[in-house]
Every structure is written in structure tokens, then in C-alpha cells.
Design goal:
single chain; alpha+beta; about 20% strand; binds zinc ion
Length: about 425
């Protein structure tokens, strides 16, 4: 019985479309449902309605994380958990986060309706403020749950109007009591948010890691000078350094293999006048790689090149890291449960790393965790045009179902 069980893909799809109506951006399939707004509450309330249909225990913790639990036959055992987020970017889509929450609920619904026995409880969590756009700390709810951030730090975060997280949790009646962060295993199912699975024509991404990533600011000083009278050889021009630094950085990126990422997203000059040699240049570099050794090499090569090029041109330079996220190797045992589920279901698949941060990164610091990806159209996400197919949505949820059942230590009688 357990091996033959499948989720109801059309029910899952209809629920995705129903939540997608909340905060719909007119004339698009996109949504604006930022964290702890009325729209966010409405989507959570609808989630609770569906969870209560299968008699889940509903709980809200001290940062508004909402969870629905299907209690196992041995409730004292740690649960097998899954989850994601219902909040969106200001111009977000219908799938980023929402899919992981509703697929988790679909898994619980399928198990409840088929009377599949499980001794570990099964829990799906809606994490608060994953996107970090209204309150500017991404993955906030999972950070508090996993002890990486105190509730007080999170409560004090304010949006641009000065409204705090605590104000909104109280207003929306989503402020509960602290819970202990515990689970036997955790999974997060998500759209890839990149183009790899679609390009490789694979249905499932077995996510093994999250890449190391960091952002750096470079400031090079020059001397402002008139564009006409000042001979080229007599200029202290920081752009001369940039002209040599950029090819070097791109070369390091290419040399680090297909998984290396070098992005120069901001370049600013002072005073920014079209006929003045800039007195100062600032640019940022975003560096990423899934393998720690290669990542560290990318960072050290970049710093070395920037410093030596500026020294050669006799231009003072400051370079420093202003944001860093350590990469994550997901739990082998959880990854193995996903691999077994994919093999059992016969979906095309590949191992993949995550290029973005997810709640699963925080969860992984406390309990064994891994992730599952499905393709999204053209790799587009954080965009009203974000789209996935019903068949991929169904496949991913079936993988989640069997991975969770594998970890829930089900009874032999289910076989
Ligand atoms: Zn997400």
C-alpha cells in the first residue's frame, strides 16, 4: 500500500491557484503578499482551514511560524518535518515557497486519507518572513526557530513605515509560545529558481548542498581632474584599475568551473560627471561556489588581483566583505531518502546545489535536512511570470511524500 500511494495532483494545483488569488497583481499571475500583511494572514488562515479538514494539530510559535501536525502512533518521537513560506516578494509568483507549504499539506492529506500508519508525527511548517523584503531579514522565522536569531531581535525589525514585526504578529493574532526546535528529519520542496533542471530536461533536482556566497565592496581612490587638459599619463584614474580588474575577475570565475559565480552588480563613480576623471570608484562583487575550497580560492584570487592592480597603478584601495553565508552540505541520510523516492517513482533527476538561500539552510543547522527541486519555466523567480507545470508540481510532491514516509519509520504492515 505504502509503495503505491500517490498525492492528488489536481487538488494540490487547485490549492496553489486558490492561494495565488490572495494578493493577486492585476493582469498577471503574480502576487504581492509580503510578510505579516493582511494578505499573508489570509493565506495562512486558508492553510489552517485545509489542515483542520484532516484533523491536524495547529500550532503557532513565538515568531508566528505556523505548523500543522499529523500525530503519529508514538507522539513522543521527534517529528519528520517539511515546510516553506507563504509570503512573497512585492512582485512575486505563485510558487516560490507556497509550493513547499501546500505540497507538505498535500502529503499529510494523502497519508491521512489513505490511513497510512506512521509512528513519527508528520509536520508541515509555514515559516514567517522568508523573503525579507518588508522586514529586511530573510529567512527570519526559521532563524528564530533554529536559535540563530533571538525573538527580540526579530520583534524589533520595522518596515519602512516604522511598524514592527511584534506589532504585526499581535495585530494579526499570530503570536504564540516558544517551541523546542526538534525533528528526526526535515525536507523542503521548492521550485529551482534557476534554469538548470529545465535545460537538462530533468523533473527532479536532488539537492545536495547550498553554495558558499559572499558580497564584497571595493573602493578605489583617484584624483578628480578635467577630461580635457589632463594628459592620460598624468591622471590618477580609478577606472584604469577597473579596466584591468574586471577581466581578471571574470577569468577567475571561468577557471573555477561551471559552478563558480562572479557578479559585479553595482558600479558607482564620484562625482559621476561625464567630463571629469572620477575621484572615487565603488563597486561590489558577489562571489559564489558550492565547493568550499574553490570558493575560498575565488575570494583570495580576487582580493590579491585587486590589490596588486591598484598598487601597480599607485591608486589607494579598500576592499572588504560586507555579507557572507556559509555553504551547507545537506544530510546524507535525508538526501538518500530523496534518492530512494525518486528511483521508486521513476522520475528523471539529477544532483544539484542551491544557488539561493532557503529556510532549509537555517533548519539544517539544528536537524538533519535536505531539499528537493522541480523546474520552473525559464528559471524565472521573484517575478510575476514565475511558472511551473502541474505535472512537475505533482512529481515533486510525490517525491516529498515518499521521502517523508521513508523517514517516518512506517510499519512493515504498510508495505
Ligand atoms: Zn522561497
Amino acid at each position: 500500500m505504502q509503495n503505491k500511494i500517490r498525492i492528488n495532483g489536481s487538488r494540490l494545483w487547485q490549492r496553489l491557484m486558490a492561494i495565488g488569488e490572495i494578493g493577486r497583481i492585476a493582469g498577471t499571475t503574480g502576487c504581492d503578499r509580503q510578510a505579516l500583511t493582511d494578505g499573508d494572514k489570509a493565506s495562512r488562515d486558508l492553510f489552517i482551514t485545509w489542515a483542520e479538514e484532516i484533523d491536524c494539530e495547529i500550532a503557532i510559535d513565538n515568531i508566528g511560524n505556523l505548523s500543522a501536525t499529523l500525530v503519529g502512533s508514538e507522539p513522543e518521537l521527534p517529528p519528520v518535518i517539511t515546510g516553506s513560506h507563504l509570503d512573497t516578494q512585492p512582485t512575486g509568483g505563485m510558487f516560490d515557497g507556497i509550493y513547499g507549504c501546500l505540497a507538505g499539506l498535500e502529503v499529510l492529506t494523502t497519508i491521512a486519507q489513505n490511513n497510512i500508519k506512521h509512528n513519527h508525527s508528520l509536520k508541515v511548517t509555514v515559516w514567517t518572513n522568508e523573503e525579507g523584503c518588508r522586514f529586511k531579514t530573510a529567512m527570519m522565522g526559521s532563524a528564530v526557530w533554529s536559535g540563530m536569531m533571538t525573538p527580540e531581535e526579530a520583534y524589533a525589525l520595522c518596515d519602512d513605515n516604522g511598524t514592527s514585526v511584534l506589532d504585526e504578529l499581535k495585530r494579526l493574532e499570530y503570536l504564540g509560545a516558544p517551541v523546542k526546535a526538534t525533528a528526526k528529519a526535515a525536507f523542503e520542496l521548492h521550485i529551482e529558481q534557476g534554469p538548470v533542471l529545465e535545460q537538462q530536461d530533468k523533473t527532479i533536482g536532488v539537492v545536495t548542498s547550498v553554495q558558499h556566497m559572499s558580497r564584497h565592496k571595493v573602493t578605489i581612490s583617484g584624483v578628480e581632474a578635467h577630461a580635457g587638459p589632463t594628459p592620460m599619463s598624468m591622471r590618477k584614474d580609478p577606472i584604469k584599475a577597473l579596466a584591468k580588474i574586471l577581466p581578471a575577475l571574470y577569468e577567475f570565475g571561468n577557471d573555477s568551473g561551471v559552478d563558480g559565480r562572479v557578479t559585479i552588480g553595482q558600479i558607482e563613480t564620484y562625482p559621476g560627471s561625464n567630463n571629469t576623471v572620477p575621484g572615487e570608484l565603488m563597486f561590489t562583487i558577489d562571489l559564489r561556489h558550492p565547493i568550499e575550497e574553490n570558493y575560498k580560492q575565488l575570494v583570495s584570487q580576487s582580493y590579491k588581483a585587486i590589490k596588486s592592480i591598484c598598487e601597480e597603478l599607485n591608486l589607494p584601495v579598500e576592499v572588504g566583505c560586507f555579507w557572507h553565508s556559509h555553504g551547507i552540505e545537506f544530510d546524507k541520510n535525508c538526501v538518500n531518502s530523496v534518492e530512494k523516492a525518486v528511483a521508486h517513482l521513476g522520475y528523471s533527476n539529477m544532483e544539484i546545489f542551491s544557488g539561493a538561500g532557503h529556510d532549509a539552510c537555517n533548519v539544517a543547522s539544528v536537524v538533519p535536512t535536505s531539499m528537493i527541486f522541480i523546474p520552473c519555466k525559464d528559471g524565472i523567480s521573484h517575478n510575476v511570470n514565475e511558472m511551473a507545470t502541474e505535472s512537475d508540481v505533482t512529481a515533486g510532491a510525490n517525491v516529498l511524500l515518499h521521502a517523508m514516509l521513508d523517514q517516518a519509520n512506517t510499519f512493515a504492515s504498510n508495505e
